[in-house]
Design the sequence.
């Protein structure tokens, strides 16, 4: 179980037990967990200056009102009056710890220890927490070991010490097994165009990093969505989302689709809701964002649903839910979009991802293979940590990996999103340079925990004759494994966007009944530079003499046996003929002008016959098929260049009759 499972009030407050004033709630919470050290201590609280003691009581009152900065200044005054006032140093350390000023907290704990180490013994636990907050896990482990030597610790205190020890040991072991290679974690505040004196959190971004949408807590109680457009590499002044999406209800925990057209988010206590928090969807229109629509009872229950993340092809929706059929607290689920546009019943991601603790804030990267999420059930540093799981060749999620320190800390981490380049991450934090509350930050992700660098293709599918946009199916297939990576539908006007993880070669197919399919291959395995493709696709109506090049048919040099990578494309031809049972086709083989003309005729004819033989083996009637080898007699490009010769070596499908 992850360390956060035993978090208790003493650790949250970090304040010592006062021997002067015990009426404060903070002190009562601490006193319930600690043994009284006075009998073995040299420090005598009752000997403290009366004026210093009065200032100390004032400081504790300020702390109870969450005025830690004021409390710190008051305690400094008390210490000036009595520099041996150990309780003042301990509470000063606790207040600095609450502000996450770990070094100042450590300095004051160590000053208190120098006054009376016996009196300090009980405070080795909060001291260790601040050491760990600064990243000094070896010293933190030593401090908590000292804490656990205290005799007669009650059960809660011992459990608190033991779970912290487990966390520190995890951190030490992680550092020993992961080489950071000089990685520096340097989050950059996204500045005044994004951040404000109130809290901003839950960033989400489009595939091209051109639009950032996030949640802002307006007037400190109402959550609304804001957006910022990146122009010339700079995010401009953010504004409230236009349209009908922001209301006087709380809208938050959102995810924008990679193409920027859908926004799925969490709405709590909406009148039409199924439970406390449901998932809703809004669509981008010419008038702004549409009024939210509840995703319905196939996804939402009477329990809690939140933190949606949509796959790049819009086919899978990941989210967190507190429904009772999970493995523990909150689990991560996935729902699949069906052909009719509805969502399937959610599937629990299983015990590899989910634990007896809480899992949440899933983010599926544009590579559609890397899932980032938070968990307090997997081993970690304390609180909610960030993890990544990769999808294996069998489509199953692999064992999650902790993202490590300093991305993960002893605090609760929140949502993380990563741009298509796999390097740039966005998250919310209340760091020292925050404009107020939570701010949005960006940083470079450590190399070993990055997703696949992802390119993308966008464009429009249209009728070649009429130029009218065509709603069509678009499919991306890994040529090496012949597995479909993504499937999507264009919008009603034929627009599409599809992502391409780098390092592999892909077949790209577009299908619509009544048209010849489009095929293209993207040899990205050797590509080093970042590239985005814009491809408009004219679909050829099926009619006599219509023809397409089958770009994903592959042969070895000077051979006619089909390579395995060709199967993806050939199966598309099979499906085309089955969907249009009266169509007859001819497969034409072509070569470049290398070698003898007679040899080229023979080779191209044999290759065309190999294709028709495959189609027959898949149940296509031979009477519907013919083949011919044309050799180098019909070039479509200049044979004097390698690129031209490559275009001339091709296999074509021609419609003979409909």
Sequence:
């Amino acid at each position: 179980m992850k360390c956060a499972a035993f978090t208790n009030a003493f650790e949250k407050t970090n304040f010592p037990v006062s021997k002067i004033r015990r009426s404060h709630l903070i002190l009562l919470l601490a006193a319930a967990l600690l043994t009284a050290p006075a009998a073995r201590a040299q420090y005598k609280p009752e000997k403290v200056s009366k004026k210093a003691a009065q200032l100390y009581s004032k400081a504790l009152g300020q702390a109870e009102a969450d005025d830690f900065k004021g409390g710190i200044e008051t305690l400094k005054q008390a210490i000036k009056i009595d520099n041996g006032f150990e309780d003042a140093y301990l509470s000063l350390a606790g207040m600095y710890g609450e502000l996450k000023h770990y070094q100042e907290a450590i300095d004051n704990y160590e000053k208190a220890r120098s006054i009376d180490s016996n009196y300090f013994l009980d405070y080795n636990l909060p001291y260790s927490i601040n050491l760990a907050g600064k990243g000094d896990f070896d010293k933190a482990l030593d401090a908590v070991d000292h804490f656990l030597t205290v005799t007669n610790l009650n059960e809660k205190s011992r459990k608190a010490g033991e779970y912290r020890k487990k966390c520190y040991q995890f951190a030490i072991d992680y550092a020993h097994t992961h080489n950071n290679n000089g990685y520096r974690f340097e989050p950059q505040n996204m500045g005044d165009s994004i951040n404000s004196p109130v809290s901003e959190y839950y960033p989400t971004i489009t595939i091209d990093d051109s639009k950032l949408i996030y949640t802002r807590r307006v007037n400190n109680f109402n959550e609304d969505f804001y957006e910022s457009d990146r122009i010339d590499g700079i995010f401009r002044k953010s504004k409230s989302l236009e349209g009908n999406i922001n209301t006087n209800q709380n809208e938050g925990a959102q995810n924008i689709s990679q193409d920027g057209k859908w926004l799925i988010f969490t709405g709590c206590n909406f009148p039409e809701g199924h439970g406390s928090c449901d998932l809703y969807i809004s669509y981008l229109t010419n008038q702004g964002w549409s009024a939210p629509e509840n995703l319905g009872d196939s996804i939402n229950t009477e329990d809690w649903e939140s933190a949606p993340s949509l796959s790049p092809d819009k086919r899978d929706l990941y989210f967190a839910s507190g429904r009772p059929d999970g493995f523990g607290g909150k689990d991560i689920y996935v729902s699949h979009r069906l052909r009719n546009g509805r969502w399937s019943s959610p599937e629990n991601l299983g015990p590899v991802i989910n634990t007896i603790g809480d899992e949440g804030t899933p983010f599926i990267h544009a590579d559609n293979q890397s899932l980032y999420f938070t968990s307090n059930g997997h081993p970690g540093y304390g609180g909610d940590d960030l993890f990544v799981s990769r999808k294996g060749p069998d489509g199953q999620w692999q064992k999650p990996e902790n993202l490590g320190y300093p991305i993960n800390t002893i605090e609760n981490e929140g949502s993380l999103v990563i741009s298509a380049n796999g390097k740039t991450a966005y998250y919310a934090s209340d760091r020292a340079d925050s404009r107020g509350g939570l701010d949005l930050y960006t940083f470079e992700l450590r190399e070993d925990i990055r997703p696949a660098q992802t390119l993308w293709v966008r464009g429009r599918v249209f009728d070649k004759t009429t130029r009218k946009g065509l709603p069509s199916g678009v499919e991306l297939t890994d040529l090496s494994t012949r597995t479909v990576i993504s499937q999507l539908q264009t919008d009603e006007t034929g627009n599409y966007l599809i992502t391409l993880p780098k390092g592999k070669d892909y077949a790209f197919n577009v299908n619509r009944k009544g048209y010849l399919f489009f095929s293209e291959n993207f040899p990205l395995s050797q590509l080093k530079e970042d590239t985005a493709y814009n491809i408009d696709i004219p679909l050829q109506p099926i009619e006599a003499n219509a023809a397409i090049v089958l770009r994903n048919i592959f042969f070895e040099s000077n051979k006619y046996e089909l390579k395995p990578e060709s199967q993806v494309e050939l199966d598309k031809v099979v499906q085309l003929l089955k969907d249009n049972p009266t169509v007859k086709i001819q497969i034409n083989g072509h070569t470049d002008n290398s070698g003898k003309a007679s040899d080229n005729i023979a080779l191209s004819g044999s290759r065309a016959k190999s294709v028709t033989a495959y189609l027959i083996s898949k149940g296509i009637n031979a009477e519907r098929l013919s083949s011919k080898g044309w050799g180098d007699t019909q070039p479509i490009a200049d044979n004097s260049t390698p690129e031209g010769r490559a275009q001339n070596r091709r296999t074509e499908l021609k419609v003979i009759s409909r």
User: Anything to note?
Assistant: The chain has four domains: 3-177, 188-449, 453-541, 543-658.
